[in-house]
Amino acid sequence: MERKPFFFSLCLSLGLYSFTAFAEYSIFSSSFIEEDIVNIEDRSNLIANAALMAKASYNGKNYDQRRLELIQSLGCDLIQFESHDPVKKISFPAGIVCLRGFNDSKTEILIAFHGTESSADWMTNVFAYKKSAASLGLPGYAHGGFLDRYQLSRESVQDIVQEILDRLSWDGIPQDKVTLVITGHSLGGALATLAAADLQNSRPNLKIFLVLFASPRVLDRDAANFMETRFGDSIFRIWRGWDPVSKVSFGTSIYGLGSMTGFKHVGQEYSLNAQGWSPLINHSMVEFAREATSSEKIIPSLNHKGFWNGRFSQSIKNWFSRK
Fold this sequence. Notes:
Blueprint: H1 7-13, E1 25-26, H2 40-56, H3 63-74, E2 77-85, E3 90-100, E4 107-113, H4 119-126, E5 130-132, E6 141-143, H5 144-170, E7 178-185, H6 187-202, E8 207-213, E9 219-220, H7 221-231, E10 235-240, E11 263-264, E12 268-272, H8 279-283, H9 285-292, E13 297-301, H10 312-319
Helix pairs in contact: 2-3, 2-9, 4-5, 5-6
């Protein structure tokens, strides 16, 4: 969702927000993440390229220009994948795939799911009942609206990834030499989370990085914790202060509403400073992409919150918290 109204989420925020002081790091220059996981230069490129992909995945009036800019900046072969609705018997764009490099030292597949662009997308966002995440190889539950939406593009994504891996294999590049970067903004971040879990489950030899921009909560605590254990330090969740979308989906488990509450974010958290009080600006993918390519300071935190902690007042506060 790029500079579009989202009054439901704005109402959810209700102006409640907690400020916590953290030491500042640059995502492009700090050694906050161990270098044996991903070195400083690669992390810089990883997040910057993911931001360009997430921005280009939208299907607005600048659709063609964004694709052209992406191809020029990343030097990649670009493929569009679709969602297929078997009930309505329609297909519609779901995101883009970029293939970079054809050698055994650095070959990347980048997948970006587009964010909220229509009222139907927003119905997906708010339809928060839980469904089993077993089909993705995860214990626990996922947000039902996001999971149903991912299922519409699942076959397309899996087929494209397999086609690319087959093509690379013919060129002598095995799966363990390929890096897969999955990204998305807003709703796209939620779908990217599910895709990353799914592809890691079906192709465990792939090295997968997940880069999320302003993603809502997608998984319950069991599924989120399992995914974090599986991915280690390869999940980057980037959000901005005063953006209500990152607080969508109840983090606190509420008695009697367990099927609609108790969601949790995944990954290492990078909090960008708010740009004024406008939720539209603070949620904008345009602004995320600008900062991701300009090496500005960000604030990292690993403070996982968002589920019941035994005290009612604190748990309500955690609903609006970072985790």
